[in-house]
């Protein structure tokens, strides 16, 4: 069974159609890269999957569970959507760390807020806090930030901030980890840091959707690639097909521009 099924998703802002009948699926453990020019709809698609934007129509399923159905108003209720966001972890382009929290505080925050809703929270508050902290420490060690856990975001480099953001996204154990151009705000050296972490996650079969302009990375890491243009899926396939033998002229033009950079 596919871990993610997206069927006929559409989204407009005013009179502008940003997503036009988007459909695809992916299996557990796959890495899927979304490529295309700025404004092609890639980020909006990620935001719809994370319910930061609500699609106008279509259907989204994770592990066979319908998270969104444009024909069913119940799936549009905010109380339902809040739970459904937990299926996805999102790493933002500009980190979006909370400046008043340390690195470990940022990683622990969402888990601690959710823990307060547990029926045993008052009785096990200290133990739960210790469990959450231990997991956050483990994730930050995996990110190579053992000696930076108590630093605030302004004390970290851009690459370190992005690695904290990845740890934060992983802390809630999402089914699918989404990256929205995670290296676009970084210089080449820091870009390499973050791409290495993402490659390690792919090697561990983390299910990932990656919006990126790093074409070589997408070619090497992805199990499937989707090229989008003007809100449409223009081409979709294995990386060796999309990058090596693109069928569509728009794909060829895009790749000739970006692969030459």
Helices and strands in order, then pairings?
Layout: E1 4-13, E2 16-26, E3 31-35, H1 42-49, E4 57-62, E5 65-69, H2 78-84, E6 88-91, H3 103-115, H4 121-142, H5 158-171, E7 176-180, H6 188-203, E8 208-211, H7 215-221, E9 224-229, E10 232-237, H8 239-244, H9 249-258
Parallel strand pairs: 3-8, 3-9, 6-7, 7-8
Antiparallel strand pairs: 1-2, 1-4, 4-5, 9-10
Summarize the structure.
This protein is of the alpha/beta class and 261 residues long. Helix content is 39%, strand content 24%.
Outline the structure in words.
The chain has 261 residues and is of the alpha/beta class. A 6-stranded mixed β-sheet has the order 6-7-8-3-9-10, sandwiched between helices. Helix 3 packs antiparallel against helix 4 (121-142), helix 3 (103-115) packs parallel to helix 5 and helix 5 (158-171) runs parallel beside helix 6 (188-203). The model has no long low-confidence stretch (mean pLDDT 94). It is built from 9 helices and 10 strands. The protein starts with a strand and ends with a helix.
Tag the structure with descriptive keywords.
261 residues; alpha/beta; six-stranded mixed beta sheet; four-stranded antiparallel beta sheet; 9 helices; globular
Head-to-tail CA distance between termini? 38 Å
Sheet with the most strands, sense and barrel status: 6 strands, mixed
Assembly context of the chains? single chain
Secondary-structure element string: EEEHEEHEHHHEHEHEEHH
| Contiguous uncertain segments of 5+ residues | none
Rg is: 19 Å
Residue share in helix: 25-40%
The DSSP helix count reads 9
User: Per the principal axes of the C-alpha atoms, what is the gross shape?
Assistant: globular
Query: Total number of β-strand segments?
Result: 10
Classify the beta-strand content into a percent band.
15-25%
What class would the helix/strand composition place it in?
alpha/beta
Major sheet: order of its strands? 6-7-8-3-9-10
């Amino acid at each position: 069974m596919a871990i993610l099924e997206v069927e006929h998703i559409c989204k407009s802002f005013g009179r502008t159609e940003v997503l036009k009948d988007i459909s695809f699926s992916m299996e557990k453990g796959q890495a899927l890269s979304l490529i295309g020019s700025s404004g092609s709809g890639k980020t909006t698609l990620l935001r719809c999957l994370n319910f930061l934007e609500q699609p106008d129509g279509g259907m989204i399923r994770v592990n066979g569970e319908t998270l969104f159905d444009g024909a069913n108003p119940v799936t549009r209720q905010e109380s339902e959507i809040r739970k459904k966001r937990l299926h996805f972890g999102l790493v933002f382009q500009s980190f979006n760390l909370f400046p008043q929290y340390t690195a470990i505080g940022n990683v622990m925050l969402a888990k601690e807020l959710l823990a307060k809703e547990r029926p045993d929270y008052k009785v096990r508050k200290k133990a739960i806090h210790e469990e959450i902290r231990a997991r956050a420490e483990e994730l930050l060690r995996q990110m190579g930030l053992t000696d930076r856990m108590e630093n605030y975001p302004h004390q970290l480099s851009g690459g370190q901030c992005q690695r904290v953001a990845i740890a934060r996204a992983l802390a809630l154990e999402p089914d699918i980890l989404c990256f929205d151009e995670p290296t676009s705000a970084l210089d080449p050296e820091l870009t390499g840091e973050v791409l290495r972490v993402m490659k390690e996650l792919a090697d561990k079969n983390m299910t990932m959707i990656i919006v990126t302009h790093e074409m070589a990375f997408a070619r090497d890491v992805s199990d499937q690639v989707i090229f989008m243009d003007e809100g449409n899926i223009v081409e979709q396939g294995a990386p060796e097909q999309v990058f090596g033998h693109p069928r569509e002229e728009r794909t060829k033009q895009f790749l000739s521009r970006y692969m030459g950079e």
